[in-house]
Amino acid sequence: MRILVTGATGTLGRALVPALVKAGHQVRALSRTKRESRGNVEWAWGDLFSGKGVDEAVQGVDAVAHLATSGRKGRGAVDIPGTRLLIVAAREAGVGHLLLTSVVGADRAPVGYLRYKLEAERLVGESGLGWTVLRATPFHQWLNRRLRDFAALPVLPVDPTVLWQPVHAGEVAARAAELLRAGPLGAEVEFGGPQVLNTAELVRTWCHAQHLRRVCLSVHYPGRLYAAQRAGDLTTDATPKGEITWQDYLVPPPPVPSDDFASEHTASPTSPATQPEQDPDLHVYGGDEGYNRPTRG
Question: What share of the chain is helix, strand, coil (3-state, %, to 5)?
Answer without folding.
Answer: 35, 20, 50
